[in-house]
Amino acid sequence: MSVAAAVVIPPEQIVLLREAQHVVALTGAGISKESGLPTFREAQTGLWSQYRPEELATPEAFARQPDLVWQWYTWRRALVRQAAPNPAHYALVELAGRVPSFSLITQNVDSLHRRAGSRDVIELHGDILRSRCSSCHAIATDIDEASPSPPPCPQCGAPVRPDVVWFGETLPDDALQAAFNAARSADLLLVIGTSLQVQPAAGIVPLALQAGASVIDINPEPAIIPDERVHTLAGPAAKMLPALVSAAFGPA
Ligand code: BJW
Ligand code: ZN
Is-catalytic flag, 125? Predict the structure, then answer.
């Protein structure tokens, strides 16, 4: 066993990372937990504790209760703006410079990978800090985000919405194809801080396995995937990921 930053990394995982030619990372809300952002499925706080995120993040909810949904996003935008990348985000920036080929796919809408310095991030579910028209789809920049109701689109007057992917909506095709292509050519997939409950993002794991990749799932509660090529690193990403990277390549 090798010890890095007081975390024990199984030697076979160190070898997998050191020898991988194309490493793909698939991240979810858990990677931003140590940045102070709640994960998607954990109970919300304060005023929002009575609502389930799954019921607010839908086009039907926005059509029925636009003010409620807009105000939920106003609250979440403030949390995202206050947050900063944590050591797990930075470990992926470091890793990108240490392996022959690296792709980063995220389900997160918080832009913390980009703010940490990751490049070419494949963002499957959009960006909560960007807004767009619900009708003509134009990106809306000059709007009153703090308004209690969705502001009108400067181009056509229809309500503006966050530029994220809600349940029942399709993912941006270019991002989805880029993610699937990366998964098909990966020899190691790092799955970090995601419950793998949401399709099509969760399908990236079986796709990579079918293509011959190994998987390391980094999560305090790793998913149970019955495949001998799936390894788990149980613990918070901000601790485990920097330890894995420095165990494989030495300190940053
Ligand atoms: C830590 C930690 C620490 C804690 N360190 N880890 C096939 C079968 C069944 C259903 C479907 C299907 N195909 C499509 C669907 C419908 C639906 C779906 O998947 N439903 C399932 C819930 C059943 N999918 C869709 O509708 C998608 N669209 C689509 O497929 O279009 C075509 C189509 C439509 C309809 C029917 C069929 C086809 C769109 C999905 C869009 C998801 N959007 C959201 C909201 C984004 C905007 C917003 O944030 O408001 O994206 S939902 C939400 O889930 C968000 C997340 O990106 C996504 C994933 O969540 P994530 O990241 O995994 O977070 P959590 O909270 O679930 O997990 C956190 C994890 O962190 C946990 O494991 C913790 O243990 C861990 N953790 N601390 C590391 N310190
Ligand atoms: Zn418009």
Answer: yes
Closest ligand (CA of 237): 1
Task: State how many domains the chain has.
Answer: 2
Tokens read off for 87: 């050591």
Strand pairing of 188-192 and 230-233?
Answer: unpaired
Closest-CA residue to 26 (of 245, 155, 237, 191):
191
Same domain, 30 and 139: no
Residues 22 and 140 in one domain: no
Q: Measured from the CA of 195, which atom of ligand 1 is nearest?
A: 73
pLDDT in tens, the chain (252 residues): 544 447 999 999 999 999 999 999 999 999 999 999 999 998 778 789 899 999 999 999 999 999 999 999 999 999 999 999 999 999 999 999 999 999 999 999 999 999 999 999 999 999 999 999 999 999 999 999 999 999 999 999 999 999 999 999 999 999 999 999 999 999 999 999 999 999 999 999 999 999 999 999 999 999 988 999 999 999 999 999 999 999 999 987
Q: Which of 22, 113, 125, 231 is catalytic?
A: 125
- Decide whether any atom of ligand 1 lies within 6 Å of the 200 Cβ: yes
- Nearest protein Cα to ligand 1, atom 57: 107
**Domain span including residue 103:** 3-36+84-125+170-249
**Looking at residue 189, which CATH number applies to its domain?**
3.40.50.1220
Do 228 and 181 have their domain in common? yes
| 134 and 232 share one domain | no
Distance between CA atoms of 108 and 123, rounded to whole angstroms? 7
**What is the number of the ligand 1 atom nearest to the C-alpha of 164?**
47
**Are the beta carbons of 83 and 112 closer than 8 angstroms?**
yes
| Residues 236/33, Cβ–Cβ less than 8 Å | yes
Q: Based on the domain organization, do 200 and 224 belong to the same domain?
A: yes
The answer to whether the CB of 141 is under 6 A from ligand 1 is no
Ligand in closest contact with the CA of 156: 2
